[in-house]
Specification:
By secondary structure, this protein is mainly β. The protein is built from five helices and 31 strands. Strands 20, 21, 22, 24, 26 and 27 form a six-stranded mixed sheet that branches. A five-stranded mixed sheet has the order 2-11-10-4-6, with no helix packed on it. About 35% of the residues are buried.
């Protein structure tokens, strides 16, 4: 009997260790404008919030029938695998609760229901430990509709990143290197090669993050990371942008406007920037802001419009597909972002539904193996302004979960040799 119990426990832990990293579920076409963000941040996508901070989720259902949606929260390790922690160890209160705060759109051509959720709330009172989380939204049939990752951090250590040009002459003009130090005056980081794991994120895009980097040096209570290529990112280029806050006004980015059931905004023709000199063009690093000139409540009064993109490109794609790319859909290429070649115009074109506001976007090439080449159309430049975050995960010896014990930020506008 004892052997049987041991075998069951061993197999359960083995299956846990071999489980695959869990991926986010992208929302279906009728769920739009998903925003997940902290209380003092406009960054959407995969927010990083302090422990005891506020998490906010908003989204629109274009069916507009006041459907019932429920949320659940799950905790993960550094590699986004489920942990051994029970729910009451990382959460105070309950989840699997219906989202009660919703409103229907007002005076819009496209009807929709707008949903809002904030955590903590009267049911989910606190998320008690730092680390990796995922919020999952289910419908009334208990089917997963979409999910988003987010992170909670403590301030036990001081993280100081600096951005450098690559030392490898092959990439000195195209890559940016993140060096950083971790100061831990009060928390003793034993065996840091095994217990400390950084995560480096560029422009809030978790999909291109760099992980599993070991400290090069340890001096007293300080861990030093001064790598070159292992912590380098492509510099990319500044994002392109458009602003539809005024439905009827053309701008420097919008060439013309039509109306056919919904408004159609046709953007100016874009061209490849991969071989042109770098030009500074202020952006918000792929983000977006919902806004409408005359609305009292933009969440329910902003319209949905069809935005038309066209790109002139002469480079062969070798089986790849061009996509529009940005935080408007969590940096996820899908059917709605793919461009098709128009033989009549000679351009790559697509149209996608966006809620009124300001949006950053760029064109990327998705290769046949699924790899994303951000610089194929935009180019890569070390002068590009990018924002970086460095998270420090720590699992003490014998620990059961990975805490995030510190976060540091840096911007490449302060890049140095």
């Amino acid at each position: 009997m004892n052997r049987l119990v041991f075998l069951i426990v061993f197999l359960s832990f083995t299956s846990l260790g071999l489980s695959q990293a869990e991926q986010e579920m992208a929302p279906p076409n009728y769920i739009r404008t998903v925003k997940l963000y902290g209380e003092n941040s406009t960054n959407n996508g995969n927010p990083i919030i302090p422990i005891n901070g506020m998490l906010n989720l908003t989204f629109d259902d274009l069916i507009g029938d006041e459907a019932d949606y429920y949320y659940k929260i799950q905790y993960y390790d550094y590699n986004w695998r489920p942990t051994q922690l029970s729910k009451n160890e990382y959460m105070e209160g309950l989840d699997n609760i219906r989202i009660m705060n919703y409103q229907n759109s007002y005076n819009t051509l496209q009807p929709f229901s707008h949903y809002e959720l904030s955590i903590p709330n009267q049911y989910t009172k606190a998320l008690k430990v730092s680390g990796n989380y995922m919020i999952k939204i289910f419908n009334e049939n208990e089917e997963l509709v979409f999910s988003r990752k987010f992170m909670i951090y403590e301030s036990e250590v001081t993280v100081t990143p600096v951005i450098k040009r690559a030392r490898d002459l092959q990439f000195i003009d195209t890559k940016q290197v993140v060096n950083f130090t971790v100061d831990s005056p009060s928390l003793l980081l034993r065996n840091p090669d095994q217990t400390v794991k950084p995560l480096i994120i560029q422009n809030n895009n978790l999909k291109t993050a760099i992980k599993d980097i070991k400290p090069q040096y340890t001096i007293g209570n300080q861990l030093i990371y001064r790598y070159d290529m292992p912590t380098s990112f492509w510099g990319a280029n500044e994002y392109l942008k458009f602003d539809t806050k005024d439905l009827r006004a053309t701008t420097a980015d919008i060439a013309r406007i039509d109306v056919d059931q919904l408004y159609h905004h046709y953007l100016n023709l874009d061209i490849s920037r991969a071989t042109t000199p770098y030009t500074y063009n202020p952006d918000i690093n792929g983000g977006f802001v919902i806004r409408q000139l005359d609305a009292e409540d933009v969440d329910t009064e902003a319209e949905y419009t069809w935005v038309h993109f066209s790109l002139k490109n002469y480079e062969p794609l070798d089986g790849g597909i061009l996509h529009i790319y940005g935080n408007f859909n969590n940096f996820t290429p899908d059917q709605s972002t793919a461009l098709n070649y128009n033989e009549e115009t000679g351009y790559y074109e697509t149209a996608r539904l966006f809620k009124q506001g300001y949006y950053d976007y760029k064109y990327v090439l998705v290769n046949k193996d699924g790899a994303i080449n951000e610089g194929f159309i935009s180019g890569n430049y070390n002068e590009t302004e990018n924002e970086y975050r460095v998270l420090i995960y720590y699992r003490e010896i014998g620990g059961r979960y990975d805490r995030i014990i510190g976060m540091g930020t840096a911007n490449s506008k302060n890049i140095s040799n």
